[in-house]
Structure formats: C-alpha cells, structure tokens
Design brief:
Strand order of the largest sheet of chain A: 1-2
Oligomer: heterodimer
CATH topology of chain B: Arp2/3 complex 21 kDa subunit ARPC3
CATH class of chain B: Mainly Alpha
Largest sheet of chain B: none
Strand content of chain B: under 5%
Distance between the termini of chain A: 45 Å
Number of helices of chain A: 8
Number of helices of chain B: 9
Distance between the termini of chain B: 17 Å
Order of helices and strands of chain B: HHHHHHHHH
Structural class of chain A: mainly alpha
Shape of chain A: flat
Order of helices and strands of chain A: HHHEEHHHHH
Shape of chain B: globular
Strand content of chain A: under 5%
Radius of gyration of chain A: 24 Å
C-alpha cells in the first residue's frame, strides 16, 4: 500500500464511486460526437471489471438501454425534425436523425453505467454509514437507505392488495373508465397502510435514539479523496471546454 | 434560525414517513401496471408527505424517490429528481394554502402541479433522453415530430398531456386519503 492508500476499485468507498461517476457523466455531455461517450463507457467497463462486477454491469446496462435505444432509433431515424431523408418504400430514413439517436444513446449509456458503478452490489448498510459519517442528516440518509429496503416489501403489499380486492369482486379489466375507478380501491389501502407503518417506525426510531448524530468515521486514504475530487474536476473541466469551444 | 428549527422538527416527524412514501411511489407502479392505465402515479407518496409535513419534506421525498428508483430499478430516473423535487415543493406550498380542503381544489392543484412538472421535465427529457423513454408515450412524440413540431415542442406537448392527468388524479387520491385520517395524525407535523 502506498502513502495514498490502496486505490484498487474493489475497495473504494461509495463516495469515491459517486465522485468518479459524476465526473464521467459531466464529461459525456461535453461533445456532440459519440466518440467521447464511447471512450468514457470503455472506462466504466474497465472499472466494472476491476471491481469484479463486469457481468452484472453489462447485463443491467443492456436491459435498461435496449428499449430506450430502440425508441431513439425509430423515433429519430424516421421523424427527426428538419433532417433530410432517404426513401425506402413507405419509410423515409433520416441519417442525421440516426446520428442524433446514437449521440443520445451513447450519453445515456455513460449516465446509466455511472449509476450502476455506484449502486451495483452496494450493501444499504454501508451506504447509510458512509452518508451519516459525511454529515448527511440522519433523516435524509435513513430515508434513502430504508426506502431501498422497503421497495420490494411495498411492491409485494401492492400485489396482495390487488389479489384481495379481486377476491372481493373488484373488476380490474374492461374499459379505461372502469379500470380508473378501480384505482382508488387499490391505491387508498396502500397509502393508509403506509401511514400506519410509518407512525410505528417513527416511534421505534425515536426510542432507539436514531436521530442523534454519530461521530465521523475513521479518515479515508488521501488517494481516494484526491481521486474523487480529481475525477469530478476533470469531468467539469471537460464539459466547460467542450461547451465553450462551440461558442 | 426559527425557520431551521421548524424545518428540523418537521423533518424529524416526517423521517419515518419519508422512506415508506418513497417505496410507495415506486410500489404503486405494480397497481398501474396491473390496471394498464396510461399514468405514472409515481409522486403519490411525495404529495402525501408534502400535504402532511410541508414543502421541504415533500422536496426531500421527491429527490429520494428518484435516487432510490435509480439505485434499484431504473438508473435513468435520476435526472428527473429535479422534477420530483419541484412536485414535492409545490404540492407542499399548495397544501399549506388549503388545496386539500375540497376535491375540486385538489383537482385544480393537481392540474397546476402537472403543468409545472411538464415545463420542468420537458427540457430534461429532450436534452438528456432525446425525447423518448422507451415506453408508449414515445408514440405521441413521434406523431408530433412527424407533424412538423420541434423536439422540445413535441416533448413539452406530450409532457403536458400526460402530467396534467397524472397529477390531477394523484392529488384526488391524496385528498381522498387525507379525509380518512384521524385529526391526531396531523398534530405530529404541526
């Protein structure tokens, strides 16, 4: 280990991943051509591989981008405003629109990849410790981490309410007006259940003294701080240069 | 300082509520998907928190919703955290001015919030996403582009059409829930 600490990506804190990811996203919006985002995506793939998450990174990235990419290519390839087209039978394909779709998709790939780098395989408990240790108010840090834990539970509860209301004879199919009427019967119990649960959780958290601010955690390696702020500054600088050069 | 003390007190009161509301914003997607209705309803928890605990708690709920959504299911949701923040803030201010005292006021508040949400989200959708989301609403954008509209006009029109209805129904749902709450529930947030 050097004086700057161990800088292997597998050991980075969530804040270092977030700073690096933010720098990559800022840089992706510096130029219109898809070459810069493609290079940044290659960096993200390298970081995912170095932290042992390449397979899940590629799988989730492809799953997220496939429908958006298809829509982009169809909508802009056929209807991009102001672009000249080449006619193939009933369709007019617009090369400028296809280029715009590729530009947008490449930036979205960097944006999505950056979020995945921060979040894939990150245990909620580690995120909570890191956020509160950096001075984020416990209410906000707990809000994010607890929400991530509650989502699967809430979705399961929504499915149980749907099944229960169907058993009681609520029609969920048919014309749109009928389905819209069913909405209240499904969402109201979900919201009222949420309020009851929230009250119980608030009391439990207060009794445990959760809102008392914790002391700061042990200092992280200087190299990580440098890396985080360096990536962020490099991203902001690339964006500024890219935008100013177009003026 | 008095403002900060009030804010901290309200946030503490809302702290147990915010994560559950965030989960509801995401979980309500199950209901929307089952009913196959062309709505999002992804801010129903945010508006409820804003109505109970004020605009700043609403803002935090909105931002955390999109961050949690980005962390869990849809990484592309994160840029729309700005829109979610505005929805939480505006619905809290409207609630403080009595927008949930009657169903028609709630309807008007929802329409106003929908209009503002559309104006805020359209530039993000156009610039970051090229105006498409990979969902059914892309068809509206395609039709408007084919009709000669610019990208920002097409996205803004689509956003207004969808957000007005979405937020109007969201506000009506929250109004209906607030009618069923006992008065002691509101006391915690005053």
């Amino acid at each position: 280990m050097s004086a700057f600490g161990d800088l292997k990506p597998a050991g980075w804190t969530p804040a270092t991943w977030a700073g690096t990811a933010a720098g990559l996203v800022l840089a992706a919006f510096a130029a219109d051509a898809p070459t810069l985002p493609a290079a940044l995506l290659a960096v993200e793939l390298g970081l995912a591989a170095a932290s042992g998450r390449l397979r899940s990174f590629v799988a989730v990235l492809a799953g997220v981008l496939a429908p958006v990419g298809l829509s982009l290519l169809v909508v802009h390839g056929l209807f991009h405003p102001g672009a000249a087209g080449i006619t193939f039978g009933p369709l007019t394909v617009r090369p400028d629109g296809l280029l715009f779709a590729l530009q947008t998709l490449s930036r979205l790939a960097v944006l999505t990849g950056a979020v995945l780098l921060v979040t894939l395989g990150l245990p909620p408990g580690r995120l909570l410790r890191d956020l509160t240790g950096r001075g984020v108010p416990p209410a906000v840090a707990y809000g994010l981490v607890a929400a991530v834990r509650f989502v699967p539970e809430t979705r399961a509860r929504a499915r149980r309410i749907i099944a229960a209301q169907q058993t009681r004879g609520l029609a969920l199919d048919g014309n749109p007006v009928r389905r819209l009427r069913a909405l209240g019967a499904l969402v109201r119990p979900l919201l009222l259940g949420m309020l009851a649960e929230a009250e119980a959780r608030s009391v439990t958290l207060e009794l445990r003294g959760f809102w008392v601010r914790r002391s700061r955690p042990a200092a992280e390696p200087a190299g990580e701080r440098l890396l985080r702020w360096g990536a962020l500054a490099a991203g902001a600088l690339t964006l500024a240069i890219g935008r100013l050069s177009r003026l | 300082m008095a403002f900060l003390r009030t804010l901290e007190r309200r946030l503490t009161a809302a702290a147990g509520l915010i994560p559950v509301a965030v989960a509801v914003n995401i979980g309500v997607g199950e209901v929307v998907a089952r009913l196959q209705i062309p709505l999002y309803l992804d801010s129903v928890g945010t508006v409820l928190v804003a109505a109970l605990a004020g605009p700043w708690a609403g803002l935090i709920t909105g931002v955390l919703s999109n961050l949690a959504w980005g962390l869990l299911l849809r990484p592309t949701a994160a840029p729309f955290a700005i829109t979610a923040a505005v929805i939480g803030l505006l619905s809290g201010f409207l609630a403080a001015r009595g927008v949930f005292s009657g169903w028609w006021r709630a309807l008007l508040g929802g329409l106003l919030t929908g209009l503002v949400a559309a104006v805020v989200s359209a530039p993000i959708a156009a610039y970051v996403f090229g105006g498409v989301t990979g969902g059914g609403y892309d068809l509206i954008v395609a039709l408007l582009l084919a009709g000669g509209r610019s990208l920002i006009e097409a996205v803004l029109t689509q956003s207004i059409v969808t957000d007005l209805a979405d937020k109007a129904i969201t506000f009506l749902l929250v109004w209906a829930v607030l009618q069923n709450l006992p008065p002691r529930y509101f006391e915690r947030f005053r």
